[in-house]
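Re: that backbone. Tokens:
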């Protein structure tokens, strides 16, 4: 009989991408204008990882999904009001900054500490999910750092599918160049999986699931430890919105090489 899985999803909030994001300098370092007032959403890649985790947990009785989140406690509470209605999970939270200017390595260290704090966690039946990138800062290195801190050697990036067999072996499909996939098979757990978009749609809101989740969300937020995540060794001299420039030229019957050469000349100019 297949044993239950522990599926840990690393994900936090990001500013709603439909809002105008203007970087500013603050006494604490670079940030966003009116950041505390901006509406937040669950990071899109982390959301895909969460939905895939919930679907995988359904395939094995007794499996459990954890959502490990680092962010401002007040904003996490607002976010959970909507996320909690999507799929069942247990929240493990830390109260700290979450934004485009936080250091990926420091963030990963705190996420790894939260994961290690889960009582009686058996890594031999554990998968750690997360996004392959982030809408706030597309560093793409947070999940590899988490794997390193946890001592997990199996890491997969840009994953769109995972299939777990009854003997605990599993196969993942990773995106590679040319619109193709690299298929890899492992004999067992643990592993860290950084998801691309997967294949599942966003689940509909379920108030009953939301009520069940919120019973654990509020206590988790109340005891969330305060963590100090900064910008690491990075020094920002200036932050600003990139200036927009658009030059439109309409030409016909050009070869691909001529188009490429013209683009290169335009960039050099």
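Recovered sequence:
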């Amino acid at each position: 009989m297949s044993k239950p899985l522990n599926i840990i999803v690393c994900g936090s909030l990001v500013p709603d991408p439909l809002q105008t994001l203007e970087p500013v300098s603050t006494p604490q370092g670079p940030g966003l204008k009116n950041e505390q007032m901006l509406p937040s959403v669950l990071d899109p890649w982390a959301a895909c990882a969460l939905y895939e985790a919930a679907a995988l947990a359904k395939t094995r009785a007794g499996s459990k999904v954890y959502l490990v989140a680092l962010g401002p406690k007040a904003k996490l509470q607002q976010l959970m009001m909507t996320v909690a209605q999507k799929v069942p999970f247990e929240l493990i939270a830390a109260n700290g900054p979450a934004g485009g200017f936080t250091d990926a390595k420091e963030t990963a260290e705190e996420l790894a500490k939260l994961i290690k704090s889960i009582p009686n966690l058996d890594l031999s039946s554990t998968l750690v999910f997360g996004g392959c990138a982030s809408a706030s800062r597309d560093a793409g290195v947070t999940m590899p750092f988490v794997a390193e801190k946890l001592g997990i050697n199996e890491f997969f990036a840009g994953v769109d599918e995972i299939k777990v067999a009854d003997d605990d072996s599993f196969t993942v499909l990773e995106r590679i160049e040319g619109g193709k996939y690299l298929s890899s098979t492992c004999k067992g757990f643990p592993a860290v999986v950084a998801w691309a978009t997967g294949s599942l749609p966003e689940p509909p809101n379920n108030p009953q699931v939301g009520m069940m989740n919120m019973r654990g969300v509020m206590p988790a937020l109340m005891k969330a430890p305060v963590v100090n995540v900064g910008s690491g060794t990075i020094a920002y001299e200036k932050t600003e919105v990139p200036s927009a420039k658009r030059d439109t030229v309409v030409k016909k019957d050009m070869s691909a090489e001529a188009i490429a050469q013209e683009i290169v000349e335009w960039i050099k100019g």
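Residues 207-222 form the longest helix (16 residues). DSSP finds six helices and twelve strands in the chain.
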